[in-house]
Write a structure and sequence with these properties.
Blueprint: H1 3-28, H2 33-42, H3 61-70, H4 74-86, H5 92-114, H6 117-162, H7 167-177, H8 182-194, H9 199-209, H10 213-228, H11 232-256, H12 258-281, H13 283-287, H14 293-317
């Protein structure tokens, strides 16, 4: 069987899978919008994948049906949590469809460039991990932006409490005065309390959405003060000073380790880039690596060495504070 027929069969199989999901979606029917919105707050283990203040958009029959089918799956809860932490306005079904499309595109690009099934498979694997890498990058960037503004947020909470505000009123002030992602997350806390959750439960949901050690310190202090009492404003002022110093030290460490991080990226990706350049210059010369056992041994050994060196450099420059 020629390679063109293999590609045609792969595309046909992908379309068959998509058609199967569409059929299941039509059978399962649409999920009520009211049920979806109430489920964000009545289910204490649920983490919404979308901010509650966003305008409700109509999902297609396919997305709604697939969401309903995946609702009780264990892995769907983890995906929903990851999407919420990345602040992506996607459902679990939409995210899985995005991964599937990315795999098909990666496989197609790999085959068009190399005309070999091995590199086409590599392109498909790259397409599978690309959305996950993007979600992880969004999470890290969001947590970093949250931590950098958390010290000022705690100062605003402290001043509001000393002015006579209650904790909920102070949180509402933060949601109005601070910039995203602080404002959006604390506004969600206020709305969750308005829908019947306690402040402790709403803050616990906030901590699940924002995986931050500094925020964990803040939430723990608020919960302890609620149980045993005390001057919360003074406690928060001390926490704010600690967090600001930690952010300052992290910034200095990031500047000092920039050269090491960039060197790790250059050393790791330079052989890969050089391989692609040689592929376009002399395709037969590079493809000979995939036609002999010695070539495969060289590829596996080089990949292991590159990955080990990259991880070692990242471990050296990753200094915890």
């Amino acid at each position: 069987m020629s390679m063109e027929w293999i590609v045609i069969l792969a595309i046909g199989g992908g379309l068959a899978v998509v058609s199967l999901f569409i059929g299941l979606a039509i059978i399962l029917g649409r999920r009520s919008i009211v049920e979806e919105r109430l489920g964000q707050y009545t289910d204490r283990t649920y983490i919404p994948t979308r901010p509650v203040e966003r305008k409700e958009r109509k999902l297609s029959h396919f997305s709604e049906g697939l969401d309903k089918a995946l609702k009780r799956r264990s892995f769907a809860s983890g995906i929903s949590t990851e999407l919420a932490r990345a602040d992506l306005k996607l459902t679990v079904a939409e995210y899985l469809m995005l991964i599937f499309i990315s795999v098909v595109i990666g496989f197609g690009i790999g085959f068009l460039i190399s005309r070999t099934p091995v590199l086409a498979l590599v392109g498909g694997v790259f397409g599978f991990f690309l959305p996950r890498w993007y979600v992880g990058w969004r999470q890290r960037r969001r947590v970093r932006a949250f931590n950098e503004r958390l010290g000022d947020t705690i100062n605003l909470l402290t001043n509001s409490l000393r002015s006579g505000y209650s904790m909920l009123q102070a949180i509402e002030t933060v949601s109005k005065e601070m910039s995203p992602p602080i404002s959006t997350e604390f506004a969600r806390v206020v709305k969750e309390v308005g829908l019947g959750l306690t402040i402790e439960e709403a803050l616990a949901n906030l901590l699940r959405r924002i995986n931050s050690d500094d925020l964990d310190l803040l939430v723990t202090a608020i919960n302890i003060q609620h149980e045993v009492g005390g001057n919360l404003a003074d406690i928060l002022e001390s926490i704010a000073h600690t967090i600001r110093e930690r952010v300052r030290i992290k910034g200095e460490i990031r500047v000092l380790t920039t050269q090491g991080r960039i060197s790790g990226y250059i050393i790791s990706f330079l052989p890969i880039a050089l391989g692609f350049i040689l592929f376009f210059i002399n395709r037969e010369y590079i493809l000979s690596l995939f036609q002999h056992v010695c070539g495969w041994v060289m590829i596996v050994t080089a990949s292991f060495a590159i990955a080990t060196g990259f991880l070692a450099i990242r471990r050296i420059v990753n200094i915890e504070v």
